[in-house]
Task: inverse folding
């Protein structure tokens, strides 16, 4: 039994490093907590989906998540930070898959967290799982047109 616990701990070490990396990126924020609090992600349901995502005038990063999902909670501070830094350029929308299973099914979400970049109502990129925090930062830069990579890769 003790050998089994050690095996589980060793398997979780890479995940813990990812969580630590996300936490470090968030702590390096150049914006104040007050500024960040005024630019939070929007919570989306079936009722406001069309307005907030399909007809959004700016690109949207859709975060499919659930409250019980530890990796979802770990990536949330980075998404909050990005929502503040890219306010007016990229919108962050959060969809709770437990409360909106129809939207999760519509977007073929198989695991959470899943981030989907949506432009003009179309999914242009997907990140499944906690992923590399740098990939999330790059996604926002691409959507904001700061690197030009997203449009040429799609």
Result:
């Amino acid at each position: 039994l003790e050998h089994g616990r050690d095996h589980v701990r060793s398997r979780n070490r890479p995940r813990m490093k990812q969580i630590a990396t996300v936490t470090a990126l968030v702590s390096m924020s150049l914006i104040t907590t007050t500024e960040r609090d005024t630019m939070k992600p929007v919570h989306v349901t079936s009722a406001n989906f069309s307005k907030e995502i399909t007809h959004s005038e700016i690109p949207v990063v859709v975060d499919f998540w659930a409250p019980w999902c530890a990796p979802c909670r770990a990536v949330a501070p980075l998404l909050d930070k990005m929502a503040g830094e890219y306010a007016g350029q990229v919108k962050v929308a959060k969809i709770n898959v437990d409360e909106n299973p129809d939207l999760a099914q519509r977007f073929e979400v198989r695991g959470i967290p899943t981030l989907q970049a949506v432009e003009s109502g179309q999914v242009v990129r997907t990140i499944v799982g906690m992923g590399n925090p740098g990939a999330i930062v790059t996604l926002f830069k691409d959507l904001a047109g700061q690197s030009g990579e997203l449009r040429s890769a799609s």
Summary: The CA atoms of residues 87 and 100 lie 25 Å apart. The first strand starts at residue 42 and ends at 43. Strands lie at 42-43, 60-65, 91-96, 114-119, 122-128.
